[in-house]
Amino acid sequence: MTTDEIRNTVLRMLCEVAPEADPALVRGDVDLRDQLDIDSMDLLNFVISVDEELGVEIPESDYGRFSTLDEFVAYLAERIGAPAPGVP
Amino acid sequence: MGQFVMPALGADMSTGTLIEWRKAPGDTVSRGDIIAEVHTDKADIEVEVFATGVVEELLVEPGAKVPVGTPLAVIREEGEAAIPVAPPPAPAEAPPAPAERPPRLLVSPSAKSLADELGVDLAFVRGSGPNGRIQRRDVEAAAAARARAPSPAPAAPPPAAPAAAEAEDRQAAMRRAIAAAMARSKREAPHFYLSETIDLSVALRFLADENARRSVQERLLPGVLLLKAVALALREVPELNATWQDGKVIGSDRIHLGVAIFLRGGGLVAPAIHDADALNLDELMLAFRDLVTRARAGQLRSSEFSDPTITVTSLGERGAESAFPIIFPPQVAIVGFGRIVERPWVSEGQILPCPVVTATLAGDHRVTDGHRAGAFLIALDRRLKEPESL
Questions:
Q1: What is the DSSP letter of B218?
Q2: Structure confidence at residue A82 (pLDDT)
Q3: What confidence tier does B279 reach under pLDDT thresholds 50, 70, 90?
Q4: How many H helices and E strands in chain B?
């Protein structure tokens, strides 16, 4: 899975958790909780989706490692072992 | 012979609009079955029936807006013979002409759910309900038509459904409903407030340990510990778990926690988790998660609106440090939690960083006083320091 694919998958899952969000307007460098008005229940639902769809179980102790979309995609890419953008 | 009446789904509701019948004359119903969907200023709600028997007659047409307490249907309870019934009173507002196309997309909660399930785009469904509201049968018809079609229909622009206008209408109605209930509460119930800052270090360690050994799906949120601690503290100070009706306080043997849930886009609802004190943490987490999900999907049930015996509101991790909430009538108390923050804390002669939460209780002086409210907060504090007992 490439980082672009991870990004698209994450955006889709975020919009399932917060259906009012427009994926085209989600900025990569802004805190997701502020952008999408998500709370701890939404975050848990999102983490469950990541576990079920991507097979990545995120420990609570890692929550502090990401607050933006860019940070989360980088985190997942590291966990999955995805190639960096532009790398075949 | 029992009458099914327009229920009062909160103190702020004086009328409701019948959206859709989910049962027909001759259908058997059991206590707890969903019999109808009702529109209120706060939400569309699935209404449960509180009798077991057979639907004898439907007295009100979908689309009618009627006062709370208006008979909507007659239910012949088990063992009763069928008898004729008097005609219902005139509705507060006659059902609108069905031919008018609604200016915005109106969808019943069950239709919305069914559309999601069947993959039906509601923008292309014509509603047959009052005000053109889309109902389950419309979604089923659309799904059937799609299945019969020889090829997918070409993409067409959706009808001009001004979603923003719809959202504004709902927002305005919800704000009016909240304002009415809160103004009544402040006018009628003499509020007093007490607060307590509670050391959560033991509770959060317990939670971290629990979650570390659980699957993602089984994790608990801090809010669940707060809810359970409130429920157990209420057992010790039961006079706060009550309602004020017709000049009298009516205590409740059961603890139905109203949980304030913010809705994205504005507004909030506070439906009940029933018998919260009797649920273990896993059960409470499941109920909490289910309630939040359904609240935000517009799929709450009538008993969840009518049954809370006290409300808990939590500002969450992005809120302020303390909350001073207004009692939701006819309840006589509400508990507010601020954000969990780390603060210097003196413990055994040392100043250490410590996660704390400020719990505030608003009580109704007609029913209780600061002494008992203080006892509640002390019990709450103690419960949260003994998380293994939750």
A1: G
A2: 63
A3: very high
A4: 8, 20
Portion of chain B with pLDDT greater than 70, in percent: 83
Q: Which residue of B has its CA nearest to A20?
A: B264
Higher pLDDT, B187 or B1: B187
What architecture is the B109-155 domain classified under in CATH?
Irregular (4.10)
A residues 8-47 lying closer than 8 A (beta carbon) to B: 18, 20, 33, 37, 39-41, 44-45, 47
The closest of B371, B333, B374, B376 to B191, measured between CA atoms, is: B333
Higher-pLDDT residue of B32, B323: B323
Structure tokens at B292: 């939040």
Calculate what percentage of chain B has a pLDDT beyond 90: 52
Nearest-CA distance from B216 to chain A in Å? 6
Q: Which CATH architecture has domain B171-389?
A: 2-Layer Sandwich (3.30)
Answer yes or no: are the C-beta atoms of B55 and B25 closer than 8 Å: yes
Sequence-distant (6+) residues with CB within 8 A of B97 are none
Identify whether the C-beta of residue B300 lies closer than 8 Å to the C-beta of residue B271.
yes
End-to-end CA distance of chain A: 11
- Residue A47 lies inside a defined structural domain of this protein: yes
| DSSP annotation of B60 | S
Give the number of beta-carbon pairs within 8 Å between A and B.
40
Both tokens of A27, joined, read 């900025």
Contacts of B264 in chain A (CB under 8 A): 18, 20, 37
Neighbours of B141 (CB within 10 A): 15
